[in-house]
Write a structure and sequence with these properties.
14 strands; 247 residues; eight-stranded mixed β-sheet; alpha+beta; 6 helices; four-stranded antiparallel β-sheet
């Protein structure tokens, strides 16, 4: 996706050592695809002084060292990168992209999914119907969030799911959570405002491995309901793809 397809970017100061990049387009799908395309190009041509790049579904936070560079230089670099078209799909020099498909086993019950009942009430569905909707949705990983958590688009429910009014302070690793029309899996214990609807026995991130995760942006995820006994039998091995194809 090029600048011509998603329009000009917006770059705004975020504190005294960061800039927030967004795409002011009316189509959500264009905004999300555009920010991914921009992020990939920016990371490939990261300017001096940039410390970190934090991805959001529709935004990109660029953190920089104010002793090395300044906001105007970061903004100039961002706008310059945004005008560059990525390699065409048929460019023989472009790396082959592989899309992996994951079947994630999940236990959906009151213990593992403490917000399942409230989500069902909000959507005017039964808990079983919510589980059916989640299992019937095809998710695509949009970005890797904090601690490499896979954040996904694709939840098919009657209306977007609200976040919790009061965030939970300690959610177990493997927790499957939803908000809006998105889903995410918690890699490590921590707080969240997302609605916890289930839990997978699989390990999502293993920092002892050279490659801590087996998934990336663009990969496809399906959630498969399992019983507690089936989850125990499956064990806590690293989540691995069931298929992988070149595109």
């Amino acid at each position: 996706m090029t600048t011509a397809q998603y329009g000009a970017i917006t770059v705004e100061p975020f504190g005294d050592s960061a800039a927030m990049v967004t795409i002011p387009h009316t189509d959500q799908a264009v905004r999300r695809a555009g920010i991914v395309a921009f992020r990939d190009r920016f990371l490939a041509h990261r300017p001096d002084g940039v410390l970190d790049v934090v991805s959001g579904l529709e935004s990109l936070l660029i953190e920089y060292d104010p002793l090395v560079t300044a906001l105007e230089h970061v903004e100039y670099a961002a706008r310059l990168v945004a005008r560059w078209a990525p390699p065409p799909v048929d460019d023989p020099a472009a790396p082959v992209r592989r899309v992996r498909t994951f079947a994630v086993p999940v236990v959906f019950d009151d213990e593992h999914g403490p917000d399942l009942a409230s989500v069902a009430e909000e959507l005017c569905l039964s808990p079983a119907e919510v589980v059916e909707a989640i299992a019937g949705s095809t998710f695509t990983i949009s970005l890797l969030g904090a601690a490499m958590a896979p954040m996904m688009d694709g939840l098919r429910v009657p209306r977007p799911v609200r976040r919790r009014a009061e965030p939970r302070t300690d959610v177990a690793p493997g927790a499957v959570m939803i908000a809006g029309t998105n889903a995410i899996i918690q890699p490590f214990p921590g707080p969240t405002g997302w609605r916890v609807v289930g839990r997978t026995p699989r390990t999502i991130v293993d920092i002892s491995r050279p490659e801590p995760v087996s998934f990336g942006t663009g990969d496809v995820v399906r959630f498969v309901p399992v019983t507690r006994a089936e989850a125990e039998a499956l064990g806590s091995g690293l989540l691995m793809p069931v298929t992988e194809v070149a595109v």
